[in-house]
Specification:
- The protein has five helices and five strands, in the order H-H-E-E-H-E-H-E-E-H.
- It has 171 residues and is of the alpha+beta class.
Length: 171
């Protein structure tokens, strides 16, 4: 049989100049920073729940008496989570300043079944319920104060049609 030399079997080494390596690294850093900026802008922003997915939170130990007259923020987090504590403080202060608004917290480490049913993959995750207990908005992360105002104002009695998903928070 024919014998091949090591020179013929091994692929030729490719070399990259230091300048090219730095250009590739700079490009990767730029893409990473752009992605981080996009994620940071969307974190803490509410997402309106589509009518086809709207409904009540499943099997929560919340009595109708605990719901706010206008809105109820139901927050899922953990005690060891710093953003969860900041979210709780922000929403509690907002609820204290706005009549008809309530805040209820659940520790997902004590309610893993709910976290699974609600597809909660990050903490904190907060749901905004209307006065009838229907989910209207889902917020991941620390909510921006203007978002709290915007979403609660959208649930004002004039906008309440008692239909899941009926509130247009962009109006």
């Amino acid at each position: 049989p024919h014998s091949q030399s090591a020179h013929q079997i091994l692929p030729r080494e490719t070399s990259m100049s230091v300048a090219a390596a730095f250009a590739v690294l700079a490009g990767l850093i730029a893409v990473s920073l752009a992605l981080a900026a996009v994620l940071a802008r969307t974190r803490g922003r509410g997402r309106v729940v589509r009518p086809s997915r709207a409904g009540s939170l499943p099997e929560l130990p919340i009595a109708d008496a605990e719901l706010g007259d206008t809105a109820t923020f139901v927050q899922f987090g953990m005690q060891s989570c710093a953003p969860c504590r900041a979210t709780a403080r922000r929403i509690q202060a907002f609820a204290a300043e706005n009549s008809g608004v309530r805040h209820i917290e659940f520790d997902i480490s004590q309610h893993p079944d709910l976290a699974s049913k609600l597809k909660i993959v990050s903490a904190p995750t907060t749901f905004l319920l209307d006065s009838h207990g229907n989910i209207r908005v889902r917020i991941s992360g620390l909510p921006h104060p203007d978002e709290l105002v915007h979403h609660v104002e959208s649930l004002a009695p004039a906008n309440d049609t008692n239909q899941p998903g009926a509130v247009d928070v962009h109006a």
